[in-house]
Design a protein that fits this description.
Blueprint (H helix, E strand, L loop, with lengths): L5 E5 L6 H7 L5 E4 L12 E6 L2 E6 L2 E2 L12 E2 L5 H13 L5 H8 L10 H16 L5 E3 L11 E3 L23 H4 L7 H8 L3 H11 L1
Parallel strand pairs: 1-2, 1-8, 2-7
Antiparallel strand pairs: 3-4, 5-6
C-alpha cells in the first residue's frame, strides 16, 4: 500500500536507485521547480559503473540569474558536446550488460536532440525510465516554492547526494559488468539497474522497499 502525504523531490538526471524506491512508496510524487538551484547534486549529475569504478556524468548548465536561478530556469549548455561524451561513456560501461540492447533504443535519442531547459530534459528521461520499469507513476511539478514546514509533503529534496553514500538503506546484490574488478557498487544511476537486471528491475525496487 502506498503512503501519504505526497513525496517532494528535486529533479535528477537519471537519478540513483534509492530515489526510485521512494517513488513506489507514495501515491503522489512532486518535483520542486522553484528552489534556488543547487550545484554538485543529482540535479545535473548521475553516477554509472565504468571500467574504473564509479563514474560521474555531469550536464553543463547555465544559471541565468547566478546563484538565485530557480531550477525551472536552468539552461543546458551545449558549448561542449557533452551528449556525445555521455552516451559514449554509457555504451562503454554497459555494452556488455545483459539488457543494454534491449533498452538502448529508448534512451539513445535523448543524446542527439537538444533540450533547452534541464528540468525538461530530466522530465523526458524520467518518463522514459518509469515506462521502462513498468511503473504507474504520475509526475507533478510545484507551482511555487514549498516550505520545509509544509506537512502535506515528505520533503526529500536534499536527501540524495552524490557526495556521500546513503547508509540508511540495504541494497541487495545484482550482477554488474565490472563487478569482478571493483566489487558490487550499490545505489548507482537507475540505468545501472535497468541494463543489468532488466525486467527484474521493478521487483528489485520493491524488494528494497519491503526490506527497509
Amino acid at each position: 500500500m502506498k503512503e501519504t502525504p505526497a513525496i517532494l523531490l528535486s529533479t535528477s538526471y537519471l537519478g540513483p536507485i534509492e530515489c526510485f524506491t521512494q517513488l513506489i512508496r507514495y501515491e503522489n510524487f512532486y518535483i520542486e521547480t522553484y528552489e534556488n538551484y543547487i550545484k554538485q547534486t543529482y540535479r545535473n549529475r548521475c553516477i554509472i559503473y565504468g571500467s574504473n569504478g564509479r563514474m560521474a556524468l555531469t550536464i553543463p548548465v547555465i544559471k541565468v540569474n547566478g546563484n538565485h536561478t530557480k531550477t525551472k530556469d536552468i539552461l543546458i549548455s551545449y558549448r561542449q558536446d557533452w551528449q556525445k561524451n555521455h552516451w559514449r561513456s554509457i555504451v562503454s560501461a554497459y555494452n556488455h550488460s545483459p539488457f543494454f540492447l534491449f533498452y538502448k533504443d529508448e534512451l539513445e535519442p535523448f543524446y542527439y536532440k537538444k533540450t533547452k531547459y534541464l528540468l525538461d530534459f530530466n522530465h523526458q528521461l524520467l518518463e522514459a525510465v518509469i515506462n521502462l520499469l513498468g511503473l504507474k507513476i504520475q509526475i507533478f511539478y510545484t507551482e511555487k516554492y514549498i516550505e520545509k514546514k509544509n506537512k502535506q509533503f515528505r520533503d526529500l529534496r536534499n536527501r540524495f547526494t552524490p557526495k556521500k553514500e546513503n547508509a540508511t538503506l540495504s541494497f541487495p546484490h545484482y550482477t554488474q559488468v565490472f563487478e569482478e574488478n571493483h566489487g558490487f557498487i550499490s545505489n548507482l544511476s537507475i540505468i545501472d539497474l535497468l541494463f543489468n537486471a532488466g525486467t527484474d528491475s521493478q521487483e528489485y525496487l520493491y524488494k528494497i522497499f519491503a526490506g527497509n
